[in-house]
UniProtKB/TrEMBL annotation:
Residues 9-261, 349-538 form the ABC transporter domain. GO terms for molecular function: ATP binding; ATP hydrolysis activity. This is Macrolide transport system ATP-binding/permease protein. InterPro entries: AAA+_ATPase, ABC_transporter-like_ATP-bd, ABC_transporter-like_CS, ABCF, P-loop_NTPase. Transmembrane segments: none annotated. Residues 249-276 form a coiled coil. It comes from the Bacteria.
């Protein structure tokens, strides 16, 4: 039986610049067949850009990319028209598979002729068809849709008739159904619950071709990745770490310490060399008092000392030139979340809940008896996709009015919601201007955006539409943190955020002076949650 020869996914010296900002600089990597490399880095480090370049969706300014013939790319956001149906989405994903089927039929027909290359053509077509599993498409489609939790949705449904998470899971199922030779996935677990994430993990573990995925999901990185590629600034280009996320944390800290020590040692040596060349050499002189009859001795000793001084200066100057050329650059200061601004006024300590919902019913999305938020509540809302987690937060924030039920809020209570999907009305506005307009000049000056550690200085005056999804969500978080609410609602707070920021945000929420309600499928976060847990049941709404 002929087999398909799988090829690696490669990038050599890839650089990408947007205007005056370099996003990727001389990135090189190789992902061999069977490897599953997790792509990590700060928001805006270029993870999505690199995936687009490797997929052929974007052309780099310099560098070379080589890829297998069929590459599947999962975008962060589903790139289909709202009026498209799920059936159309699936069929579009199968376009290359259908072409393989047609080629196999044509190659089989050619065997009847006298073309000497017909057998080689048929063997090649058969190998491609075997790899794509063309004879089991229907069964695999049903298994994929069920495994990702969307098997019950009719294929005739339009994309604008379901949630964003359901659209994303359908897109992922369609991609896997096409059986590409290589997989490029941008945040594949963003909308997956535990069962769906475990199913995807199983799919990747059995994938024979190269897999490269960008993810904020620490548990998924730990379990699915064979190695991690860190796009954060390193001494020279990208850094590859073997193993999962836990191993990465330890090695990342050790590498940072080695870098900082080498930089400090080299700067100290540079200072000493400059002193030797600029000061010490000039101050050394033979100072013996010369008598009239010692002119020969003076000449002899003076010339000897001059040669010694000259040699020392040359040695120091040579080493100075060499070290100046080869010194490691200064480790960049990491962008670090500064936490909750000072001066927060918590809600009063009088008896009763800050916020209470009773008998909620939002048809098709949520049914819940009672939900209360106290002054210092720490509530984690869990549940499978479709259980109504996002709907509950929107009801509590006053953005959705339930068909049945009541929501009571304490007078003067400020409630804010960090949504999953952030959209700014004017993409040409800058983060600095959006911040000033939202808070007012006085508050923006008292709590400057740059001081929150969420937006890098270089991005403050860029158009918000040019920022990555993660950077835009950082800005949305900054708008809330600058004026902390009494009740802070966070919908999948670790989605799209860098691993570092996700960890820092979790720590900050532990000491938040108000009430916190988090809806999340993040296994890493949930395993470490110390507060109350409310589990929603999707069946409660379906059975109503």
């Amino acid at each position: 039986m002929p087999t398909l020869t799988l090829t690696p996914l490669r990038a050599d010296g890839v650089s990408v610049r947007y205007g005056d900002r370099r996003v990727l600089s001389d990135v090189s990597l190789t992902v061999p067949p069977g490897a599953r490399i997790g792509l990590i880095g700060e928001n805006g480090a270029g993870k999505s850009t690199l995936l687009r370049v490797l997929a052929g969706a974007e052309t780099p300014d310099s560098g070379v990319v080589s890829r297998p013939k069929r590459v599947g790319f999962l975008w962060q956001e589903v790139r289909f028209r709202p009026e498209d149906t799920f059936a159309a989405l699936l069929e579009d994903a199968l376009a290359e598979v259908r072409a393989i089927e047609r080629e196999l039929e044509a190659a089989a027909t050619a065997l009847a002729g006298d073309d000497p290359a017909a057998h080689a053509r048929y063997d090649s077509a058969l190998a491609a068809a075997e790899f794509a599993e063309v004879w089991s498409i229907d069964a695999r489609r049903d298994a994929l849709l069920d495994g990702l939790g969307v098997g019950a949705i009719p294929l005739a449904r339009r994309l604008d008739e379901v949630s964003g998470g359901q659209r994303s899971r359908f897109a992922l199922a369609a991609l896997l159904l096409g059986r590409p030779e290589a997989l490029l996935l941008d945040e594949p677990t963003n909308h997956l619950d535990d069962a769906a994430a475990a199913f995807l993990e199983g799919q990747l573990l059995g994938w024979h071709g190269p897999v490269l995925f960008a993810s904020h999901d620490r548990a998924f990185l730990d379990s699915a990745a064979t190695g991690l590629l860190d796009l954060d600034p390193a001494r020279s280009g990208t850094t590859v770490f073997g193993g999962g996320y836990s191993a990465y944390l330890a090695e990342k800290a050790a590498e940072r310490a080695r870098w900082e020590k080498q930089y400090a040692d080299e700067q100290a040596e540079l200072a000493a060399l400059k002193h030797a060349v600029d000061v010490t050499a000039r101050s050394i002189a033979w100072s013996g008092k010369v008598r009239d009859n010692d002119k020969f001795v003076k000449s002899y000793k003076g010339n000897t000392l001059d040669r010694q001084i000259s040699r020392r200066v040359r040695n120091a100057d040579g080493r100075l030139d060499e070290l100046t050329r080869t010194q490691v650059r200064k480790p960049p200061k990491p962008l670090s979340f500064s936490g909750i601004p000072a001066g927060f006024q918590a809600a009063g300590e009088e008896a009763g809940s800050l916020l209470q919902a009773d008998g909620l019913h939002v048809p098709g999305w949520l049914r819940l008896g009672r939900f209360a938020v106290e002054a210092q509540s720490r509530v984690l809302v869990t549940g499978a996709n479709g259980a109504g987690k996002s709907t509950l937060l929107s009801v509590l924030a006053g953005r959705i009015v339930p068909l049945v039920g009541t929501v009571q809020r304490r007078r003067g209570l400020r409630v804010e919601l960090l949504e999953q999907d952030v959209r700014f009305a004017d993409p040409t506005q800058t983060p600095r201007r959006i911040y000033e307009l939202a808070l007012g000049e006085r508050r923006a000056e008292a709590v400057p955006l740059s001081g929150l550690g969420l937006i890098a200085a270089r991005d403050l005056d860029r158009e918000v539409g040019t920022l990555s999804v993660g950077q835009q969500r950082r800005l949305a978080l900054a708008l809330i943190m600058a004026r902390p609410p009494h009740v802070f609602l966070l919908d999948e707070p670790t989605n799209h955020l860098s691993l570092t920021l996700a960890t820092e945000l979790e720590h900050a929420l532990g000491g938040y002076p108000g009430a916190v309600v988090v809806a999340s499928h993040d296994r890493w976060l949930r395993e470490r949650w110390a507060g109350e847990v409310v589990a929603l049941d999707a069946a409660a709404e379906r059975d109503a």
